[in-house]
Every structure is written in structure tokens, then in C-alpha cells.
Amino acid sequence: MIKLDDWLNISEVDDGPFFAEAIFQRKYAQSAPDFPHHVVAFLRRVDGALLPASYLHFTRHEDVVLVGGGATDGRAFAQVPPEVGEAIRASGGLLLRTLRFGFRKYANDCDAFFGHCGDPRAFEVDMQAGFQPTRVEHLLAYWHRLLDHERREALIDKVATLGPF
Questions:
Q1: pLDDT band, residue 1 (cuts 50/70/90)
Q2: Is 58 exposed, middle or buried (0-12, 13-18, 19+ CB in 10 A)?
Q3: What is the 3-state secondary structure (H, E, C) of 77-113?
Q4: Dihedral class, residue 147 (left if φ above 0, else alpha if ψ from -120 to 50, else beta)
Q5: What structural domains does the chain harbor?
Q6: Which residue, 82, 24, 28, 33, is CA-closest to 53?
Q7: What is the mean pLDDT of the segment spanning 155-163?
Q8: Angle 120-129/94-106 helices, nearest 10 degrees?
């Protein structure tokens, strides 16, 4: 039986580009954000070396947190035992686990989390994590606090003015 804590570590890192530039470039063909907050999922190889395998960026914006830049490097799975990869997939995958880590870590910093998603595969993971579609195309919200309808609508309007992030 695989104990994922022996093979997977999800952490906030100060220098996101140092750890995740290659993952971000591969997914988006641009540089990773150079401002806080970066969350990286690391896989441990058999020799003990840690590999950055998944990345998410959490940006505080007034009373919400914007979640973006989700990227996973599937090539990292080739460097760990197959049963580790199978256990991670069975647990929902790296992006789901990284989202949940960020939701816990930054829960006290905001009234809600927002994501912008147009990718069908990422959308599935976002829904598993607890995001919900809003009335704005591609804009997702994760309501981790009880907020009345008017407050939710005001937050959606505020974040929608930012455009894709």
C-alpha cells in the first residue's frame, strides 16, 4: 500500500519561477508569475530527489483570491514508481490536491476564491475541488464562506471586471 505522504509534498514556495518555470513554459509558453503566492506539488524520486510536478498561483486581490496558472508536468510521473502515479491519480490527481492545499492555506485571507477556466479537462478538476460556474463565462467561484446572494453577486461583478487572469 502506497503512503502518498512519502512520495508527494505540496508547499508554498517563495520563488515560484525557480521551481515551476519549465512547467509553466511548457503549458503556457510564457514565464511563471514572479509575485506571490506559488504552490508547487513535488514528487519524490526513488533516490530522494524532489521534482516539481504541478503548479498553481494564488493572487490576493482585495477580499478574494484569484487562482490561476494551473499546470502539471506528466513527465514527472515517469520518474517515480508506477504505483505512486496510480495512487496519485486514484486520489484525484496533482492539480486537485494542489487546489485543495491552496484553499486550506489561504481560506482566512479571503471571502471567496475565483478561477478562470476554458479548458474542459481543468474544468472537471475545478468542479471536483468545489468551484462552481458563475453567470460570467469561464469564471468560477469557490464559496468557502457563507455569503448572501448580494455579496456573491458583487464579488462576481468585481472579479469579472478584471478579465481573464
A1: confident
A2: buried
A3: HHHCCHHHHHHHHHCCCHHHHHHHHHHHHHHHHCCEE
A4: beta
A5: 4-160 (3.40.630.30)
A6: 24
A7: 97
A8: 50
